[in-house]
Amino acid sequence: MAINDLLFRPAWFLRTELLFGIIAFLITLIISYYSYRVYKISENKKYKYLTVSFFSMSLGFMFKAISDLIIVYFDAFLKTFRFFGFISPTYIYTGSLILYVFFVLSGFVILSCLASQVRNKSIILSLLSIAFLCAILVRQARSFTFFYFFAFVLLVVYIVPYMYNNYKDKKNKSSYFVFLSFALLAVSNLLFIALSSRYSAIIYTGGHFISLLAYILLLLNLTLVLKK
Length: 228
What we know:
This protein is mainly alpha-helical. The protein contains eight helices and no strands. The chain is globular. The model has no long low-confidence stretch (mean pLDDT about 90).
């Protein structure tokens, strides 16, 4: 394949990871939808940023699910595409991974700009350019390390401190869940950076379970907000 699959990904985890990706896609899409509804009512630009951020992430997870689907059912896709004369599923797989990295990182970039109150378009474009570079490096360097590292930096430097300060100010269950979810995302990306061939399966699956828990906490926070 054009990319030698995800680094150190155990074969037995493929279908589970596909399911995790679909769940993350649905959760981020739901959060984006309700953020948009709040923005239309309040016209608070914070919710506009949240809408775009989580919608970007949902697009990323959609493309991730497509790439996982191709890996899981590669032979079936290959036969079907050859029969109808389509391009090789390898290209769709590669393109989907690149788009996954770009859109998820773009979501983190927008959240970081919200957290740091950056409104300068040149700074935002510069950060988005780094996100694009990380996406291209997935193809060129055949490595997700740049993706995990940039996501970790954005989370630790901007997003997690912002969510923690928000929790200190509000001291409620909702703000705690949001802070904890992004802290868990930072931990999961740190685990992915630390991937090694010796403990790869444990670290990789552990990182994804932590990521899933983070997005479930975000969904739980949304249900708490909607009950008010």
